[in-house]
Amino acid sequence: MIETILEILKQSDADDYKIISSKTVSNEFFFVQHKLDMNRKKEVEHIQLTVYKKIDHDSYLGSSSCEIHPTMSREEVENAIKNLCISASYVKNPIYTLNGSNHKEMAERKAVDAKKAAQDIIATVKSCNESENEKINSYEVFVNEKEIRIINSQGVDVSYSNMDSMCEIVLNAKNETHEVELYRNFVFGTCDRDYLKTEIENALQSGKDRLRATNTPNLKKGTVLLSGKNVCSLMRYYISRCNVQNLYTGISDFSLNESITKEEVSGDKVTLMGCASIENSGSNAAYDSDGHKIEDRILIQDNICCNYWGNQQFSQYVGKSEACIFSNFKVEGGQRSVEELKMQPYLEVVEFSDFQTDPTSGDFAGEIRLAYYYDGKKTTCVSGGSISGNIQDAQKNFLFSKELKQHNNMIVPDTVCMFDVNITGIEE
Q1: Where do the structural domains in the chain lie, given as residue ranges?
Q2: For site-directed labelling of 224, which of 246, 316, 357, 425 has its Cα 20 to 30 A away?
Q3: At what angle do helices 114-127 and 193-211 cross, to 10 degrees?
Q4: What is residue 166's predicted lDDT score, i.e. its pLDDT?
Q5: With contact defined as beta carbons under 8 Å apart, do 235 and 226 qualify?
Q6: What is the mean pLDDT of residues 118-141?
Q7: Residue 428: pLDDT above 70?
Q8: Average pLDDT along the chain
Q9: Residue 153 neighbours by CB under 8 Å, 6+ apart
Q10: What would the mean pLDDT of 275-283 be, rounded to a whole number?
């Protein structure tokens, strides 16, 4: 199909084009409790085609995209490309050029064993410690082997392969009067057995603790600890602010070689890196979607913006960064251990209904499903209420744990401590 598309494109009105072909072999397993209910293997191919048209004497470059299905006839492909050319002629983006830095390259293919990855995930889930009241309800395992090829009209033709795995799991916890259901979704490259087992058993404990949780006290202001994937949500603010598209559109005000904070910082400073690959990440790629070879890049060093990241189009618009789209990121830790961060009264929120950080304003908020409140003497499980604040205020005295933790494509401090966060409880 690729050769047919290329042949038709050469005869079309397209000024430029880009093709991304993705072939996936998916191994899928569905369990009810620990009994295999169904398993299947799928092979699918997706071909994403983007057509570019120059407009108004090469002042603008319009683009339009669609998926070309492998089962389409030649006539259907011709009509699709014709319609793309028409659509692209109405899009007036300032002129830019496609990547032409690479030609024909194929990344070294690493040996992967999808069967072993699936076996490891299933064995790990089955090894988790359950009890009469805290159990695994059901789970689904997906292991995907992918082959990616990127071609454009400027001579790029690069290929690479990778593998990603996912485990979706539903857990139940109950007592004499209530029952709660918890959902978790774990994504990784192959299977980090220690990580998966710990996370599932922590989730079972969370279910137990939610059933005995009391109301969150109305502290108004206090010290908040975030851990787990909530730290990733917080750190994505900085990832977003370093993106060239957000810089171009005015969402980000980060400037090269300048501090990301307007005030003096008394806590730990942010150091952020875009990574070509992270061991056991399900997002590893040799090339980005524009065909650029991905290489490590320091984006923020001790609160100083060092570089940006992003696609070919907006990198050219900004003119201050080499184009590169990252899928893996790492945030360095601080000087204190998690234990040291817990030596003062705090509210550690481990479960939110949904925790979000706005990349434009820096506002963050979340409704508390489960937290641990330490008043200086004892720790209590609490639920209800919410926390809120603004990362631009909180970053003045951030404290990062020196312990790091990987969550698929991100390595971040295990725990982040923030002071004077708004804490709205449900007690007067």
Answers
A1: 2-210, 214-424
A2: 246
A3: 30
A4: 95
A5: no
A6: 94
A7: no
A8: 93
A9: 9, 14, 15, 16, 17, 18, 52, 98
A10: 93
* Residue 376, H or E segment: none
Place of tokens 């234990």: 339
Query: Residue 26 is which amino acid?
Result: S
**pTM score of the predicted model:** 0.92
> CB 109: neighbour CB atoms within 10 A?
12
pLDDT digits (tens, 9 = 90+) for 6-19: 999 999 999 999 99
Q: Which CATH architecture has domain 2-210?
A: 2-Layer Sandwich (3.30)
Q: What sign does the CA torsion over 314, 320, 321, 322 have? A: positive
In one letter, which amino acid is 290?
A: D
DSSP 393-407: HHGGG-EEBS-EEEE
Amino acid in the structure at residue 320: K
Characterize the bridge pairing of strands 272-275 and 297-301: antiparallel
Query: Which amino acid, one-letter code, is at 154?
Result: Q
The answer, yes or no, to whether residue 363 has pLDDT greater than 70, is: yes
Burial class (CB in 10 A: 0-12, 13-18, 19+), 38: exposed
Measured from the Cβ of residue 48, the count of other Cβ atoms closer than 10 Å reads: 15
Whether 199 contacts 184, CB under 8 Å:
yes
Write out pLDDT tens, residues 59-110: 999 999 999 999 999 999 999 999 999 999 999 999 999 998 667 777 667 7
- Burial of residue 203, with CB atoms counted within 10 A of its CB: 0-12 exposed, 13-18 middle, 19 or more buried: buried
Q: In the prediction, which pLDDT does 263 show?
A: 82
Distance CA 400, CA 334 (A): 5
Task: Indicate the residue type of 251.
Answer: I
Tokens of 324: 């590169």
For the segment 122-138, the average pLDDT, to the nearest whole number, is 94
